[in-house]
Design brief:
homodimer, alpha/beta, 209 residues, 9 helices, Arc Repressor Mutant, subunit A, DNA-binding
Chain lengths: 209, 209
DNA sequence: AGATGTGAAGCGGTTCACAGCT
DNA sequence: AGCTGTGAACCGCTTCACATCT
């Protein structure tokens, strides 16, 4: 089984390889891949070895081949329909975010509870009511749900998404979500990141005192 | 020294404690704190022990006291001026994000290169040009820089922020930033998160096949 | 009695160093 | 000769289990 930490780095290799491909490099060493990706070369080799024996000793890795293998491993050779719940500041920005659909993530549905927002069209998609989720689920078969709601309703939204068959959730609301086993949750929490930076900032300041 | 992993969890305890305080609980056990924060009780105790001996055996932790101690450790007892660079979709949303300033993070400056955006007023702050950064730095003394630009210019922006005296960076642009030692960088990468979810989604699908 | 604080064991991930292949 | 693939050492974090204190 591929370690979680490795999975989290595969996207980095993917991006790095795309840059290499764009620069017309056909082959790449673990050394160079590591340098471009900001990691250690041994780690690159170990990570890639989990996907199989993909390189050629004495030569390196074939850029195109590796791109394909990683894409396949990450499940990026197919499209994943995405539903965004909560269209405040952030949800709006996400709905309009172009790079979103870039690699196979297709926003297929937008959901909110605010009656003034329901019916609005954002990035070509009409916002529907949270209560419509079951219907939308059978229509759109969403795989990934993005929660961009205020914290207090995030758990309820998560429950509804899970009930609608979503098994992957990207949560921007602060707080812990509890979901059944088999449902993957990734959390993006701005205020946690800022607080971690604050800690470093304070330590930095203490050193200069 | 406090382990990095512990620092990353302190904000979670902080939020949990604020909920407990709001519910008028005056004392809390590691068990309960763990449950609310979605972690293990032994971990809570070990984490908190790095800040000192803050609890009372047989009783638990005093909510208000612990709130203060964690806040202080994270450097949240003072304000950190924040500058946002890049006011596209995301930067805009960030500039308007209220919860941002909630705990001592004050957005003091907005920067872009697009002449059509420079001069625009967002959330009461006038957008200035990237070239003004040195001047803004001496005026505003920013501690934290938020990069919400397209990937290709992120490194240049980071260099300028560092030159302007910023020692903490929150980077929303994909890719690796190289910064001098002593500068802290936290990365928030939407597409990496989605790709990790894609991996789980694919594994999930494989299991149900 | 009850909950903290912590040595020690356990675990996952990183890094080293080199055998093995081209 | 050169670079991959990988066993083994290492490291940091997690978890256990219990001595310690109120």
């Amino acid at each position: 089984m591929i370690p979680e930490a490795t999975v989290a780095r595969l996207p980095i290799y993917l991006r790095t390889l795309m840059e290499a491909a764009a620069a017309h490099e056909t082959t790449i060493s673990s050394e160079r891949l590591a340098e471009l990706g900001g990691v250690n070369a041994a780690k690159v080799r170990k990570d890639l070895s989990y996907l199989g024996s993909l390189g050629t000793r004495g030569v390196g890795y074939d850029v195109e081949f590796l791109l394909f293998e990683i894409s396949r491993e990450l499940g990026l050779t197919r499209d994943w329909p995405v539903i965004i719940v909560g269209l405040g500041n952030l949800g709006h920005a996400l709905a309009n975010y172009k790079g979103f659909g870039a690699r196979g993530f297709q926003v297929v549905g937008l959901v909110d509870v605010d009656p003034t927002r329901v019916g609005e069209e954002i990035a070509g998609i009409t916002v529907r009511h949270l209560d419509d989720l079951p219907v939308m689920a059978s229509e759109l078969r969403p795989a990934i749900g993005v929660i961009a709601t205020p914290a207090p309703v995030a758990q309820d939204v998560a429950d509804r998404l899970v009930a609608a068959g979503v098994t992957s959730i990207l949560n921007f609301a602060p707080g812990v979500l509890s979901v059944p086993k088999g449902v993957a949750v990734r959390k993006v929490d701005l205020s946690i990141e800022l607080q971690i930076l604050s800690f470093h900032q304070q330590r930095q300041a203490a050193q200069h005192a």
